[in-house]
Structures are given as C-alpha cells and as structure tokens.
Predict the structure.
Amino acid sequence: MIVYITPFLLYFFCIVAFRRLIPFLKKMSLIDYPTERSNHTGIVPKGAGILIMGLFIFSISIALIFSNVFNLQWIIFILALVILFIVSLIDDLKSLSAPLRLFFHFFSVIISIFALRNEIIFFSQQNILSWINYNPQVIFCFIFLILALIWVWIINLFNFMDGMDGLTCFQILLLAVTINILSVLGLIDEQFQYVSLILISLFLAFLKFNFPPAKIFLGDVGSIPLGYITGLILIKVLLNGEAIIPILIILLFHFSDSTLTLIIRLIKKRNIMIAHSDHFFQKIIRTGQTHYQVLKKIIFLFIILFFLSMLSIYYPFLSLALGIFFTTVFLYYIHMVSKK
C-alpha cells in the first residue's frame, strides 16, 4: 500500500516544496545566467534536481525496502546515483572540469556494471556471442566496455538535451508511462514499476514550474542522475532479454538529436568537450520561435513515438523502423526551418 500511496504524497509535497525552493535558490545565487549559447534571455534559478533527485533516491529506497527487493545490486545502483547527485551538485555550484566529471561518470557506471555481472554472463550465453568460440572472460570484458561507453553517453546526452523549457519533463514522463505499461503487462521487471510511478509523480509536479516559460531549471544535479536512471533501465532490460524496443522508440528524439549533433561537430572538427548550442531544438529556437512553439512540435513527435512504442509490443522491428523514419523526418524539418 505504501508503494502506491507514495507517488500521490510526492506530487503534492513537490508542489509545495518547489514554491519554497525557487526563492531559496535565488537567494543562494544558484542562477542560470543567459550567455551567447543560451536558449533563454532571462535569469532563472537552477537546481530543481536537488529536490527531484533527493526525493527519488529516498522514495525508491523506501519502495524497494517495503517490497523486500532492496538487495545488494540496488544498493550499488543507489550509491552510484548518490555519487552522481553530489558531484553534479558541486558542478552546479563551482563548475568542475570536464575530465573530473567524466571520471565520476565512469566510476559510477563501472561499479553499476559490476553489479550486473550475472546478467552480463547470462546475456553472453543466450545470444549470438555464445556462438563465438572465444574466452568467456574476453567476451565479458568486451560487453563490459561497450555497456560502459553507452551508459556514460546516455548520462551526458540527457545533460546536453536539458536546454529547453519542458523538454526533459515530457521526455521523462513519456518514458515513465511506457515503463509502467510494460511492467504491468509483465514485459519488463516489475521493480521498474516503482521507478516509473515515482518519476511520474515528481515530474508532473516539476512540469508546473518548468512548462514554458520556465520558473526553474533542473541543473546538472537533475539531468545527470536522470541519464543514469535511463541507462540503468535500458541496460538492465537489454541484459534480461526483455522488451527494450518500446523504450528505445520513446527515446529516439533525445538519442538522435544528441548523437547527430556530436557527429556533425566531429566532422566539422569542433571541440566536443565544451558547451555549445548546436542541437536541432536549439537552432530552431534561435530562429525566433518560442520554447512553447517548439515544444508543441516535439510533443507531436512524442505522441507518434508513443503510439509506435505500444505498437512495437506486437510488431517490434516495423515500429522501430517507423520511429526512426518519423524522427529523421522531424529533425530534417527542424534543420530546414532553422536555415531560413
């Protein structure tokens, strides 16, 4: 009962807490000041992630404890989340160097993947890698390395994409709803239902304050741990051989925008380690369209992707292909509009 009551309590608590947090952040000068690469012209407090991720860590721990599934693996996951939370908070306050941030990102991911070693062994024995007549330890290390790079990329792409009012909110809400449905249908681990319910309650409350024009931003303290949570869900679902395609479809816009932007910057020989405003959604905002106008366009794509995500339960590869197609067309449309 506590597991299902908690989200309702979280929502109302967050509404009240955000109203107190915003003036506190302003007083503490935890402010996002507009720069040449900013998508905003006004001064807005950042640090909503302090409340959101603090409550998430507390709530998911309570939910797992009362559900008798709070094992060593989840302890490691939450420890990694706490590390990222603290490091990202310090970064918001004092601006840590990129190499130092990446060190903690990789450290958190590495200890998390070690916690998944049994799943990795099972995965390597149940797929095409099992046909390779090679040392199992080498195969394990190969999978380990690939997963670490993917997870760190997901952590950072959520940070990169957190630059528009309401965008991260809607992406996380859509992801959480999808996870909840898949969990109810028994297509992924039921433990993720707790994760989804808590995320839905927290981000519905946050949406009231982050919807254009935003009154508060997440900050790195929110976006970095969110990337970790998303990576955890994807990788755990993948290793368990569960329904990963519906989740991939939901995340296509975030993944495509960030990945294509990185590739384009590499081709143009630009420094990928420094902050920039080359994302597709940032370019269309610079044409003069408001955050609200751009967000409406992205929500339209999200609706299509959600429909395809549900369809992928029955037609996985066709739905994924259609999702990639519609996302590509949408990004091309944004690119053409931003060139005018």
Q: What stands out?
A: The chain has one domain: 2-243. The first helix runs from residue 2 to 27. The chain has a mean pLDDT of 90. Strands lie at 31-32, 44-45.
